[in-house]
Automatic annotation (TrEMBL):
Belongs to the AAA ATPase family. Highly divergent. This is Uncharacterized AAA domain-containing protein ycf46. Signal peptide: none annotated. Coiled coil: none annotated. Transmembrane segments: none annotated. Residues 266-399 form the AAA+ ATPase domain. InterPro entries: AAA+_ATPase, AAA_domain_protein, ATPase_AAA_core. Keywords: ATP-binding, Nucleotide-binding. It comes from Bifidobacterium phasiani. The keyword Nucleotide-binding applies. PANTHER family: YCF46 PROTEIN (PTHR42960:SF1).
Length: 500
């Protein structure tokens, strides 16, 4: 793939070399047209372009006619010009289906032969594949989407047009240019314009909101769903995971050019395993909130279909959509149910696993994957290879300090009160062996009774009574999960110890 400047240089070289056919693969025809206009000025040559407006327009200031209406087929006009001109370039920006052997592609091939014989150049802008015989006749240029520098320049130009309404700092523009990776020029401008109309003013506080609207630019897929979360999400415990995320944040948001220069890779994601109810699924929302990224949930199990090839197509459709809406956090809950060794026994299961692992390894989109698992014994070993997940974390039952933090958090959020140290010591001891969700639900049960009139006020004794009525997960089940986690993953807690 080449960026805009590299594409312009190659196109100029091919035209000067008299290459008869150049195919530029991109959906951004206007960028190719802009490059050709600059080449026309620099080389002082004659050039025309044809677009879906059914007009042939001269790109050369010295030509008399600015535009000429033609019927639905411009090829007769092109051939007539090629017969009586030399060193003429014609940009065909609107084409029919090019991947098949048809009357139209044969006419294009015939026009390319004529360009070769008369010393002219036909430039075709195409999104789809090109018929093999036609492809062999020319040279290809792949134009990638705007680079970081181009996105930054677009954002700066937009801000300069609305100085009273757009007040991004340099840091805000840099962050926005990073978050809008994967969008075309037109999509970036449309997103900025619609955001300005909706908000009235755009400052640094609007950056994440603008980027969060990227999913509106792409056709949604049924198995990838946006997930909302509180803007400032508070999570008790998991200090080891939080510290790791804080270290990796700058790497994730770093420019790709900087990472490539030092052979570094953006963090791919984390695999979270552990005791049910201890915050594995909640961690996905915590990470999205901490990094201020949109969150999507991917239901891999729903891609399976009974028709031949349909499962693979739906999987690729979902992966393409995820790449398009990046940067984002992608949450896959209970990944073992969709990619377990059992589901891999069929050919379709094997292909889906391979498709997913290849994407996980090779995709350059900034997608941070948060996969949770309860029964890791059934996960394929290929999933644990370094480079697919950046790290695996084991989330155990909360220790004394984490239980204290959880009680304090939920008492403040649900009961709007704080307990004294003596009450806290008693409550921490009383909920030994509880998961985070056990503690949360018990405190919220007390809050419900207070809010709806069953209790006059919330006391430590009432919370302790709710703790006494709670039945935590069995010790035998926890022991088996913990044994695996101690051998195969880092602890998500700050102390690095599993369990109590």
């Amino acid at each position: 793939m080449s960026d805009y400047q590299a594409m312009s240089t190659m196109l100029s070289d091919y035209i000067r070399a008299g290459v008869p056919l150049v195919v530029i693969r991109t959906a951004e025809r206007h960028r190719v047209e802009r490059a050709l206009r600059d080449i026309v000025k620099a080389l002082n040559i004659h050039a025309f372009c044809y677009t879906d407006s059914k007009q042939i327009e001269s790109l050369s200031p010295q030509d008399e006619a600015a535009a000429k209406d033609v019927d639905s087929d411009p090829l007769p006009f092109i051939r007539e010009r090629f017969r009586r001109s030399r060193h003429l370039t014609f940009l065909l920006g609107d084409t029919r289906r090019l991947e098949q052997d048809s009357l139209y592609t044969r006419e294009l091939l015939s026009t390319a032969y004529l360009a070769r014989d008369t010393g002219n150049t036909l430039v075709i802008v195409a999104v789809e594949n090109v018929w093999q015989r036609l492809a062999r006749f020319g040279l290809f240029i792949d134009l990638e989407l705007p680079t970081f520098e181009e996105r930054h320049a677009l954002i700066g130009e937009f801000a300069a047009r609305f100085p009273d309404k757009v007040t991004w700092s340099d840091g805000g523009m840099t962050q926005l240019a990073t978050l809008l990776r994967g969008l075309s020029e037109v999509q970036i401008i449309n997103l900025l314009r619609s955001s300005l109309v909706a908000r009235g003013v755009l400052g640094d506080d609007a950056v994440t909101g603008i980027a969060g609207n990227k999913d509106r630019l792409f056709t949604a897929v049924s198995n990838v769903m946006p997930v909302s979360y509180p803007e400032h999400l508070e999570v008790a415990g998991l200090d080891g995971l939080k510290a790791w995320l804080d270290r990796k944040r700058n790497v994730f948001f770093a420019r790709q050019e900087l990472l490539d220069r030092h052979c570094l890779q953006s963090p791919r994601g984390v695999l979270l395993m552990g005791v049910p109810g201890c915050g594995k699924s909640f961690s996905a929302k915590m990470i999205a909130s901490r990094w201020q990224l949109p969150l999507f949930r991917f239901d891999i199990g729903s891609v399976y279909n009974k028709y031949v090839g349909e499962t693979e197509r739906r999987m690729q459709e979902a992966l393409d959509y995820i790449d398009n809406v990046a940067p984002c956090v992608l949450w896959i809950d209970e990944i073992e149910k969709a990619l377990s060794s059992g589901s891999g026994e069929s050919d379709v299961g094997n292909r889906i696993l391979g498709q997913f692992l290849f994407w996980l390894q090779e995709s350059r989109a900034k997608v941070f994957l948060v996969a949770t698992a309860n029964d890791v014994q059934h996960l394929p070993p290929e999933l644990f290879r370094k480079g697919r997940f950046s790290e695996s974390f084991f989330i155990d039952l909360p220790d004394d300090g984490e239980r204290r933090a959880a009680i304090s958090l939920y008492a403040r959020l649900a009961l709007h009160r704080r307990f004294d140290e003596a009450d806290m010591d008693r409550l921490v001891e009383r909920c030994r062996g509880f998961s985070y969700s056990d503690i949360e639900q018990a405190i919220k049960d007390v809050a419900e009774r207070v809010v709806f009139g069953d209790l006059l006020e919330a006391t430590a004794a009432q919370v302790e009574a709710c703790f006494a009525a709670t039945i935590p997960i069995s010790a035998e089940r926890i022991r088996a999960i913990r044994e695996w986690g101690m051998k195969n993953a880092q602890s998500a807690s700050s102390g690095g110890q599993h369990g109590e």
